Amino acid sequence: MSHSVSLKALRRKVAALERRPAAVPAARAALGVPAIEAALGGGLARGRLHEIFAATPGDVAAAAGFAAMLAARLGDTAPIVWLRQDEAERTAHLHAPGLAELGIDPARLVLGVAADPLMLLRVAAEIVRCDEVGVAVIESWRQPRPLDLTASRRLAVAAEASGVTALMLRVDAAPAPSAAHTRWQVAAAPSQPLEAKAPGFPALDLTLLRQRGGVAGQHWRVEWDRDARGFAEAPLSGVMVPLAEHGSAAA
Amino acid sequence: MRLVACNAAVHALGLAPGLPLADARVRVPDLAVADADPAADARLLARLADACDRYTPMVALDPPAGLTLDITGSAHVFGGETAMLTDLGRQTMRWGVEGQAAFADTPEAAQALARHADLPVTDEAGAIHALPIAGLRLDPETVTALRRAGLRTIGDLADRPTAPLAARFGTAATDALARLLGRADSRLTPRRSPPALRVDRRFAEPIARAEDALGVIGDLAREAAVTMDARGEGGRRFAVRLFRSDGATRDLAVETSLPTRDPALVLRLFGERIDGLADPIDPGFGFDLIRLAVPVLAPLAPAQLALDGGEARDGEMIALIDRLGTRMGRARFRRLVPRDTHIPEQRVRALPAVEACAPMPWGEPTPGEPPLRPLHLFDPPQPIEVTAEVPDGPPRCFHWRRTTHTIVRYEGPERIAAEWWRRADNAGLTRDYYRVEDTSGRRFWVFRNGLYREKDDPRWYMHGLFA
């Protein structure tokens, strides 16, 4: 008798402990493509952790570009902190004029270069906790040992508490269990050519691999319009009809 | 091999610098000798100079084996000049060096007294007059000439008219004499410029725990904050020097992006700094003096209060970056600042975030154009194998990182000339840049380094990746 009562009390206690501010719905930032808005329930959640995977190591610039585009879309003046590792910065610099071409004023950006994955995650945890930061991009290559479920949960909790949108950019890595709100896979896509067959606006193939509390698996091809700071749906070249939609809950 | 320097005991045996080692060994068979190491001597002297910072910030090196301290206005802290000399004698014994110290009205006189007079000096003017000519530190020929003339002491020279002396022995001799006697202006050049603000805390009993030292730094920061608040100023760099009782010193410094005088912030930064040290602070037998210096002060208005009470919390992120930079290394957090050049790899300067204060404007990209500059830039550019029409056709396909990319779209060339005006030979190769896209949709920035009329076989390079 007393057993069941204490068990009930314990359950209530646990429930109280587990109730986190996650119950508060996140503010959503529309990306500019109605289909994506519908799939995400209004847009990308602010103040959450999102993961961006480069489909192959060759798509590193496309994935970094997607992170930069999201940062440009999400904040207008708030500082952006971009964290990388020495190794990545040695291979290729994050080029400020290129950021400006995607719609981010480089004067808003602080570039942090960590010596190793552990330092990267420690710095990231502190940055994400600081509510003056608008967007934090955490760029991590391969599968570093310290980046486990605990580390990502810590980032996710910090992001929820502070309202900082954390974008975890993963290159040359396979998706693993994490506390991220959404997980995207990004690959470069052929652009719509301009006059004289010139390469056009940045085009990306996006796949929503996972969404917390929502459907996933959809695929879109989008084009980035820097002047409007927004995405637009790009026609899939060839015979590709959005197959994924057949399987989605929208049907 | 000759003797370069010897200690007092050896002097007492009648040996002197300059004596061949073999002769010295004949006279004193069990003479202990070590190889001369001028670099190590200089390091020791610098260390002693650091330790002497406790007496005054105006410490000048007098190589090879002297230090000159300007104690104007600082002797009273120690209870007068004589007490200061006693303290110095005690300290030097603790540091394990032998020395002679003297004070006088001019640096030259003090140097000469310390080297040549019988210490301690009671009658300064008389002692200076009794100094040998060597105290002037002239070149050997002049000294010999003065000796031949029967002039053996400073006193012999001091009373004579200057003009005939200058005519006979050169102006160097009379100038040195005038400086020594205080007839001409003589200045010290201190090793480092004195800071704008300095607060000290000295301890009768050395403190041996790093935590206590940090507490003292906090007290000093509060003390400095009061002064800076009164002046309406703040500092961007704070330097702490820990003086160990055995003469070793340890320097720590922190920087902030914006001028500050917040003692809590300064203390937290020093805490981070100490945590981040690769070699921890070794208190040894304890610190007997801790000094906080603010090298440069900048105007800082009194802190504004927020409407709901308490100071307005602004610049929290900047403070965080400062803190992380103090722990991880100041160059780890950077701001990107434009440079006035067309050469892509030189276009951006990455400054440590604590240094870059005012944001510099970056030009707006051309509306309606796709990105013309890559997001990732390779520096140096990576050589690639390209198939292209000669002489100036666009690339058709290229081989990079063991993959062949067939180009389906391209735009170019965008011609970027070398900055011939910066080079002595006015030379440099023109680059032709192409924005290209391959079959899988990846966009690259490639260039041909040189035109065919500039170079026989210009090479192609991969310079960047577009999103």
TrEMBL record, chain A:
InterPro entries: ImuA, P-loop_NTPase. SUPFAM superfamilies: P-loop containing nucleoside triphosphate hydrolases. This is Protein ImuA.
UniProtKB/TrEMBL annotation, chain B:
The keyword DNA damage applies. Signal peptide: none annotated. InterPro entries: DNA/RNA_pol_sf (IPR043502), SulA_CellDiv_inhibitor (IPR050356). The keyword DNA damage applies. It comes from Hephaestia caeni. It comes from the Bacteria. Keywords: DNA damage. GO terms for biological process: DNA repair. This is Protein ImuB.
